[in-house]
From TrEMBL:
Coiled coil: none annotated. This is Glutamate 5-kinase. The gene is proB. GO terms for cellular component: cytosol. Keywords: Amino-acid biosynthesis, ATP-binding, Cytoplasm, Kinase, Nucleotide-binding, Proline biosynthesis, Transferase. It comes from Dialister micraerophilus DSM 19965. Pfam families: AA_kinase, PUA. GO terms for molecular function: ATP binding; glutamate 5-kinase activity; RNA binding.
Amino acid sequence: MPILRFEKKPDFLPYKQAVAAVGQCALMGLYENYFHRYGQIIGQVLMTKGDSLSSKRYLHMKGTLSSLLELGIVPIINENDAVSVDEIKIGDNDTLSAIVASICEADLLIILSDIEGMYSEDPKNNPKAELIHEVPQFTRELFKIAGSAGTARGTGGMYTKMQAVEICAHSGIDTVIANSHTKNIIYKLMNGERLGTYFIADNVHPQLKRRKIIIGSEIKGKILIDQGCYNALINKGSSLLPVGIIDVIGTFEDGDTVSVYFGEKEIARGISHYTSHDIQRMKGFHTEELDKILGEPAPYNTVIHRDNLLIMY
């Protein structure tokens, strides 16, 4: 932190946030320079803890990341330390990476560090400690092996990596912890080389991933659908489109969790892209008609995307 003439990371919160604001610019400058050499466009995404706890903000974050990837843009993701405070911070990049992996429903999270992986004991204290190549199932016992550690410049250690592994394990995402100094480490891992520690995730069905986001949310309204829409949701795994909606009950905002009913039976829950008022206007219409109905370009083609829809049986 020589630019701001700090010899160490400051403790005073406003100074910490000021350092973060300066650091974000410097960091993105480095990434821009490196990726430019390969003709790759990057985009900055700054997250806070609330982005993963609020269903509305979760929905927007998921949409942003999905769109960036769809456009071939590499998202550079960091916590927004310039405005976050300790009480509502994610806290470390290990946990942040796991949250992002969960939001994106990734297949694999690779955490690169200055260590080879997870050892049976702390190798600094016991030179005979053995590298654990594979962990077939996550258990809380791993935290005892991990201990706790951090660095002067950042936060984290093996303990926070285990927190990240736990998040991914319960989301059905495998995790690898490996040494960033190993040449071509990502290529080697993707080619199946036995490097680092591989943590095998729980066998989680995609519907159960969504359950964690949707089930705990307050239901703000109901959407009633017709037979054709019911068949599409249940038999084809489709998104909920306005053409199959018969009626809307209750008042809710975009990003709220709603129930989907066919007749008298609740068949699904999901996070709505639109307000109840907008859905009332667009119900029964085809997607290509939405711009005209809303009087402006429709931000979404679906009322509830299938990735944010939980079938209830």
